[in-house]
Amino acid sequence: MPYTIRNTIILFGLLIIVILGTILVNAKSVKRFEELEKSNKEYSETIKRLKSTYPDLENEEKVIESLENMKKKVLESSKIILKEDNPTLTYQYLIDICDNFCPDVIFDFNVSRSGEDIDFSFNTYSISGKVNIESLHFFIFQIEYQAPLYIIESITLAEESVAKADTVNFTITLSAYYNKSGNYIKDIPLKSFKFTNLRYNPFYSRIHDPILDSYELQFLSIHTSTMIGLTPYKVFLRDEDGKINTLTPGDKVAYGYLDHINWYKQAAVFKINRIGISEEEIIYIEGETQ
After folding, report:
1. Is the dihedral of CA 141, 142, 147, 152 positive or negative?
2. More confident residue, 245 or 64
């Protein structure tokens, strides 16, 4: 057989093999494509049914975001049981409160006891120190209103001394309850509260003898001044140094303020509080105090 004819036959045979292989591969690809198309159609129909039954699936990201926001709000607005507790965690938590809200509170910290109460475990701590009563008030306020569940079992207060009427010695018995269903304290954010002053010091008598107050003494004293002039809107007082002071209703004086002017009686009426209650004191144009 001539060489040319033999090569032609071989090439023709190879061509047939390639064509048959291509047809076979394409047939399998078509079958696979049909299977995938069928599966895709089934999945699409399933998703369509799910979306019809659960329309919120259309907003999956929004639902997840909303859920996370709700979890965050729960942590911020509720009392949260702790997942675990030990002296290191509680001590650090109290230090964080002091650093953020009442930095002048310094305390000694001791473990009193540990135990279990039905479904919860607990640790009880003793916190003691000496501090300004307003700062102690805000420290206790933080423990009560922050989210982690700490229970103040008892508080003992004692006035430090007469010279430091605003300073108290304190001892707080504090219990931390926890179980496995709770949250880690590091995941509970501190809430920020506006500082609220005590209305008065409970260790200081609300009605007392007159006291010298350096802040009040920087203002004009009506007891050492003379009224030398008066209009329906202004009062003119000369102090012990001869200086003329002009006051209008509401202006501050030592231990009080000018309440109003009685033009008919030619008098200035002051509200003065030197003993724990506000008293009305009147100065007439002649200089007489009543």
Report:
1. negative
2. 245
